[in-house]
Amino acid sequence: MNRSTNSKIVLIGYRGVGKTTLGKALADTLKRPFIDTDDLIVQAANAPYRKFLIMKGNLASA
After folding, report:
1. How many distinct helices (H) and strands (E) make up the chain?
2. Residues near 25 by Cβ (< 8 Å), separated by ≥ 6?
3. How far is CA 21 from the centre of its chain?
């Protein structure tokens, strides 16, 4: 199999199942950068992730 150094791995799943934990470990093992989309959303929305979900109606207000 031809493995490109530009290959990307995307982890998809429900909240709280360990995507970030696995992703960080995998990135460390493969010597690749780790990008967490939650962090990108926080930066783009200029708001904490939970507040972003509440604003978008994806999470009931607590």
Report:
1. 3, 0
2. none
3. 10
